[in-house]
Amino acid sequence: MSAVATAPGGTSAKKQQKNGRNELSDRLKAENSLGQRLVAPAVAIMLLVTAFPILRALYLSFYNYSLTSPDDREFIGISNYVTALSDGLFWRDIAMTVLYMVVTVAIELVIGFAFALVMHRIVFARGVIRTSILIPYGIITVVSGFAWQFAFTSSNGFVNGWLPFIDDGFNWFGDTTPAVIAIMVSEIWKTTPFMSLLLLAGLAQVSEDMIEAAKVDGAGWWQRLFRVVLPNMQAAIMVAVLFRALDAYRIFDNIFVMTSGAVGTESISFLVYRQTIEQFQLGMGSALSVLLFLSVLLVAFIIVKLFRVDLARARGE
């Protein structure tokens, strides 16, 4: 008798397994091809819309160009970049921007995950609770910024009255640290629902069978969280952190509304605004915009490398 096990019809088990892998590979290739064709029109439109402003900004960044004297445009090469990178104000704003991003995203990740657990597990009035949690994200950022500016004012805001360790006349916008805290609070309140929504989608992908198996093995709640839930949500967490980090790195609205960049609260996006809109320096503003764009790409690269998520494995391929 042959040592190779045969399947009904004379086909060997090894050949069946190989054929199954080939069929799976062909199906994945077909799905990838279909996905590429579906997103191609959107990608083409995005490139058309974004390519011209990016290339125009890159072009203007090599000129000394001011709207107050448009006829005196002068080619100066990389002088704008040298000036920006050698200026302490640029690096201070970069540091402040990174501080905004790291603190807000870290706090949003913790609170957003807690909200996601509630929305995932709640049975009674699930729709009402999910809608209530997502309300802040539906409010326009400028509106929420004005609301929180009013809340933190020393004259008629409610924050000083709610905090027993703060004097009633304390001025939150009189110094860098309290002003930054106020801006971060408004940012966290506004965007935590978005983080929770992305994490909720990740929680839905965690197998209940794996959680039940962990319970049977005697794993406690924290053990199930750190050994079952979070490892299987790594791809969703990376996407949530990536989206929010890139958005937080470009923070502008809340700073513009609450402090106008005063007392050291200015971000790199606000510096670009001041150079381009307030001072009409299109050359320097374009150079700063290019540097902002490159730094955003760097942040995205670092986050992806830190998580080291195998997206193909996360999709079950």
Question: Can you give me a brief rundown of this structure?
Answer:
This protein has helices at 13-60, 79-85, 88-121, 126-138, 141-152, 159-162, 176-203, 208-216, 221-232, 234-249, 253-258, 268-278, 282-307, 311-314, and strands spanning 63-64, 74-75. Helices cover 73% and strands 1% of the residues.
Explained architecture:
The protein has 317 residues and is an all-alpha fold. It has 2 domains: 49 residues; 227 residues, MetI-like fold (Orthogonal Bundle), CATH 1.10.3720.10. It has 14 helices and 2 strands, in the order αββααααααααααααα. Helix 4 packs across helix 7 and helix 5 crosses helix 7.
Strand-pairing-aware structural class: mainly alpha
Spatial extent as radius of gyration? 26 Å
Helix count, DSSP H or I runs of 4 or more residues = 14
Give the neighbour order of strands across the main sheet. Answer: 1-2
- Which oligomeric form is depicted? single chain
Describe the largest sheet. 2 strands, antiparallel
Number of strands: 2
CATH topology of the largest domain: MetI-like fold
How many domain units? 2
Strand content: under 5%
CATH class of the largest domain: Mainly Alpha
Shape: globular
Distance between the termini: 37 Å
Instruction: Give the SSE order as H and E letters.
Output: HEEHHHHHHHHHHHHH
CATH H-level superfamily of the largest domain? MetI-like
Q: Helix fraction? A: over 70%
The overall pLDDT average reads 85
The name of the CATH architecture of the largest domain is: Orthogonal Bundle
List low-confidence stretches.
1-7
